[in-house]
Design goal:
38% of the residues lie in helices and 15% in strands. The strands form 2 sheets. Strands 1-2-3-4-5-6-7-8 form an 8-stranded parallel beta barrel, surrounded by 8 helices. Strands 9-10 form a two-stranded antiparallel ribbon. It is globular, with a radius of gyration of 17 Å. InterPro entries: Aldolase_TIM, BKACE.
Length: 303
C-alpha cells in the first residue's frame, strides 16, 4: 500500500471563471455530478469549493455547500476535502464557514501570504458571461492571497480539534519551512499530506527542477513524516504530475487547476482528467489507491 498513488481531484476551485469553459461545474448539481464522476474514475480525494449557482462566482455560503457535500458523501466513499482557501477575496472567517459547519475528513490549508496573479487570463479573447469576471481577475494584479501565520494557526486550531486532517498547499520553498515551524510547535500531526503547487504567478515555477527542489526540501524537513503530492497548473498538470508519481509521490488533477485535456482541447469533465492520469500511471506499472487505502496512507479517520 505504501507504493500506491493517491489521485486527488479539485472539482471547480476559484481560479477559473464560467466564461473560460462550458464544462466548469458551477451549480450544486453540476459540482455533485462532477465530483461523483471523478470518484468513479478513480479519485480517492475530492477537493471542493462552492460557487454562486446564478453567477458562478466563488462563495463561502454554507447553504450552497450543503446542497452538494452530503450528496457526494452518500454517493461515494471518496475523502471529502473542503477548501479553507475559498478565494483571495474572502476573509479568513468566510473561508472557514463551510469546513467548520460540515466538518469534513480533510480540508486544504495554504501555507503563506503570496501574490496570486490570475490577470494574465484576461489576455485571451473571449465573450464574458458575467460582470464580475473581469474585475475579479484584474484585482489579482494589485491584490494578494492573505495567509498570515496567525491565519494558519487559526485554521489549525479551529479544524484540528474536529479530527480534520489537512492538505497542506505549499506554493514555494518557504511554505515548506512554514509548515515545519508548525510541526515543531506540534500544531500539526504526522503523517503530513503535503501538496506542492507549481505554476501559479507568485509561486514557484512549473518545471522539473522545481519538482525536484520541492521534494528534496520536503524530504529534508519532514523525513518519513509526510506524504508528498504534486499539483501543476495548466498544461503542466499531466507531465509534472506523472513525474512526481514516478518519484514516489501522489498527484492532483481537476478543473480547478487546469481546463484542458490536451493542446487546444478543453477537458469535458473532471472524470476525464482522472481517467487520463490513472491510465498513464497504470501503464507505468503504478497502482492507484482506493479511498480507504488513501485514508490509511495519510492518516484520515475512517468514514
Amino acid at each position: 500500500m505504501a507504493n500506491k498513488v493517491i489521485i486527488s481531484c479539485a472539482i471547480t476551485g476559484s481560479i477559473h471563471t464560467p466564461s473560460m469553459s462550458p464544462h466548469l461545474p458551477v451549480t450544486p448539481d453540476e459540482i455533485a455530478a462532477s465530483a461523483i464522476g471523478a470518484a468513479e474514475a478513480g479519485a480517492a480525494v475530492l477537493h471542493l469549493h462552492a460557487r454562486d449557482p446564478k453567477t458562478g462566482a466563488p462563495t463561502p455560503d454554507v447553504t450552497v455547500f450543503e446542497q452538494f457535500v452530503p450528496r457526494i458523501r452518500e454517493a461515494t466513499n471518496a475523502i471529502i476535502n473542503i477548501t479553507t482557501g475559498g478565494s483571495a477575496r474572502m476573509s479568513i472567517e468566510e473561508r472557514l464557514k463551510g469546513p467548520a459547519s460540515l466538518q469534513p475528513e480533510m480540508c486544504s490549508l495554504n501555507l503563506g501570504t503570496m501574490n496570486f496573479g490570475l490577470y494574465p487570463m484576461l489576455d485571451r479573447p473571449r465573450e464574458w458571461k458575467h460582470d464580475w469576471e473581469v474585475p475579479y481577475l484584474e484585482a489579482t494584479r494589485g491584490g494578494m492571497f492573505k495567509n498570515t501565520l496567525a491565519d494558519i494557526e487559526h485554521i489549525l486550531t479551529t479544524m484540528g480539534p474536529l479530527g480534520t486532517r489537512f492538505e497542506f498547499e505549499c506554493y514555494d520553498i518557504g511554505h515548506l519551512y512554514t509548515l515545519a515551524h508548525f510541526l515543531d510547535r506540534k500544531l500539526v500531526t504526522p503523517p503530513l499530506f503535503v501538496q506542492t503547487v507549481l505554476g501559479i504567478l507568485g509561486g514557484i515555477g512549473a518545471n522539473p527542477d522545481s519538482v525536484v527542489d520541492m521534494r528534496r526540501t520536503a524530504d529534508k524537513l519532514f523525513g518519513k513524516d509526510y506524504q508528498w503530492s504534486m499539483l501543476a497548473a495548466g498544461r503542466n498538470q499531466m507531465p509534472l504530475g506523472t513525474m512526481a508519481a514516478v518519484m514516489g509521490g501522489h498527484v492532483r488533477v481537476g478543473l480547478e487547476d487546469n481546463l484542458w485535456i490536451g493542446k487546444g482541447e478543453l477537458s469535458t469533465s473532471n472524470a476525464q482528467q482522472v481517467t487520463k492520469i490513472r491510465t498513464i500511471l497504470e501503464e507505468l506499472g503504478l497502482a492507484i489507491a482506493t479511498p480507504d487505502e488513501a485514508r490509511a496512507i495519510i492518516g484520515v479517520r475512517p468514514r
